[in-house]
Amino acid sequence: MEDQNQVVEQMCSGDSSAFDILFRHYQTKVYRTAYALVGNQEAASEILQDVFIAVWKYRSTFNPKKGAFSTWLHRITVNRCQKTMKRSSKHSCLSIEDLESKGIQIGTEPRNSPEQTSVSRDEYHRLIEALNQMSSKLKTVVVLRFFNELSYEEIASVACIPIGTVKSRLNTAVRQINQMFYEEDKR
Amino acid sequence: MKKISVNMTCKTIDKLLAGYINQSLKPREMTEVEAHLKNCDQCRQNVERLNSCCAKLKQSLSLYAGDVKPPLDDIAVIRQKAGIDKAESNIPGQHSALMGISLSFCTLFLTFFMLVPFLAGAALPPPGPPAMVNDGSGGVYLYWQTGGKQYEQHIDADGNLLWGNKGREITGKDPSFDIKCCMDNAQQSVNYFQRINSMRFWMDKDYSDRIYKLYVQKENADDNHAWLRQKTEVYRAPPFHMIGYSNIISDEQGGVIIASRATDGSKISSTYDVYAIRIDSNGDWVWGESGVLVQKASSAPTMLLIAGIAVIIASLLSWLLWLGNHSVKMLAPIASLALFYVGLRSIWLMVRTSVGLYTDGWKFVLDTPLNGAAIWLVFISGLILAIVWAKKTRINQWLMLPVFLPYLLLAGLVIWFNIGSLI
How far apart are CA B383 and CA B377, in angstroms? Predict the structure, then answer.
């Protein structure tokens, strides 16, 4: 996108065409983040709508000096997702069949070579299951780090928590997933 | 022995491994873990497993959500729900606009009531006219109070000011000597009609000028029904003040001395200077047509005018702010400051009034229930507006409270006055 700051500024001053540009640019990112957090296309679609309605409604409160637009957008997305996660305590996740129906093929056998990290169907299932059993706070940090690939500083800004908390939550999450993943392996 | 030590370390190190692969350990811990890993196969294996687990997690998340696509028609729905397609983007929300309108109306209303007296030439009423005692030789002693201090003046029979142009301050007086009370009592001396030394005084309302006038006529000694002079206008009072701001005594030479406010009814300040006029037994104005200046008016009306202008500016700014576009949102602090200034100025005036600097000054502006109601509305809507502002701009709303506290305080005092005047 050409000069994003200018487009954001235009949107903030009430230019709806700038809003359209930003929507087109960010909708997939927001939708996928929401989907990774709530695991439901319908809910993710609702969140996408709510997030951009909020962006328009509260555009005057966005302060570029306090952080990037994408961080602000992530923050709104995460807040909205956490509300949804609190509302529905049971989260669904994608099954392997869904992946195959989308044309994604993954192997059935785990590969034990350490260099080879390609995930098998079984591993994928276990990892997603482990993710779904996590608290929403840990899940948020995991998704922002491993899916959105944000830095610790960015995660801290998005989740409105100190960097130290981000680190400790991420470490706890990794330990939990590791434990669940390999415990299943041992069985 | 060595094996036990390594195991213990492994247990400790194991807790740090997640942090190690996440690069979130402190430098000292990183060094310790690295040193340990060089010598411990088991922990190295654990690190590899953790790394592999994280990589697989990343891959799984990518498979899980990396390919999903948002619905195509969302932008139309969002535009509709966000109200973009319905309304102009620059118009603020309904509630904030309503609040802005109510604030503006109230400030305009208040300003109207503050400014109309000035525009009509009726500024603040000064203290009552001086209390007078004649000196037995055609002159007069005058006593008055201003700025919390009490003054006296002696004017001789020829109209000379004997104790300085501004009179002299009374010091070391008996505490029971209350000049204000004397002044108030003296004020009652001229009402609708009074007769001293064959001179008649009365108040008349001039409907065409909308002012009150004090008239004086000299009776003809031979024929009680014929007048020595035509009735003479002594002073004009603005419509709000009614009557009673003159004091009249005999000069003990067959004439009278009048202490009264002189105003031409058109100026904002210096319109309430107090003059002493002597009319002798022939009906002549011995000390000149305008008399002798005894007391200069206070500058309170000018200050209230400034306050009124500040209210107007605040009001206009609030209009711009809420009905205009978002590009003027930076004016919010200015509007707030203007309102704050008015609040402070008003309180300052009130404090000065309470110590006797401007007798009845504040009450004059605010003691009608209508004004009180307007001010209440301004205060309350101002407070709500502050909270809404604070919420919209994510400022802590309690930080805005001190700005509007003066209003609340003032509102309390105003309502107190109102209740008092209604009862």
Answer: 10
Q: Assess B115–A contact: CB distance below 8 Å, yes or no.
A: no
Q: Contacts from B143-149 at CB under 8 Å and sequence distance 24+?
A: B143/B170, B143/B179, B143/B182, B143/B183, B144/B179, B144/B183, B144/B274, B144/B294, B144/B295, B145/B179, B145/B180, B145/B183, B145/B356, B146/B295, B146/B298, B146/B356, B146/B357, B147/B356, B147/B357, B148/B355, B148/B356, B148/B357
Question: What's the rounded mean pLDDT across residues B213-227?
Answer: 61
Q: Which two tokens stand for residue B56?
A: 């697989």
**DSSP 3-state of A150:** coil
CB atoms within 10 A of CB B87: 9
pLDDT tens digit sequence for B387-415: 665 555 544 555 555 555 655 565 566 55
Mapped onto helix, strand or coil, the DSSP state of residue A42 is helix
- pTM of the model as a whole: 0.46
Interface probe for A, chosen from B42, B78, B80, B389 (most Cβ of A below 10 Å), is B78
Do residues B341 and B304 make contact, with C-beta atoms less than 8 angstroms apart?
no
Distance CA A137, CA A173 (A): 10
Answer whether residue B339 shows pLDDT above 70: no
Question: What is the Cα–Cα distance from B169 to B148, expressed in whole angstroms?
Answer: 11
Q: How many CB atoms lie within 10 A of CB A40?
A: 18
Q: Where are the domains of chain A?
A: 1-92
Query: Strand B168-169 to strand B193-196: parallel, antiparallel, or no bridges (unpaired)?
Result: unpaired
Fold classification of A1-92 is: Rna Polymerase Sigma Factor; Chain: A (1.10.1740)
Question: Chain A within 8 Å of B59 (Cβ-Cβ)?
Answer: yes
Please indicate whether, in this complex, the C-beta atoms of A27 and B70 are within 8 angstroms of each other.
Answer: yes
Interface with chain B: mutation pick from A77, A79, A167, highest number of B CBs within 10 Å:
A167
Q: What is the pLDDT of residues A57-101, one digit of tens each?
A: 888 888 888 888 999 999 999 999 888 888 776 544 544 555 655
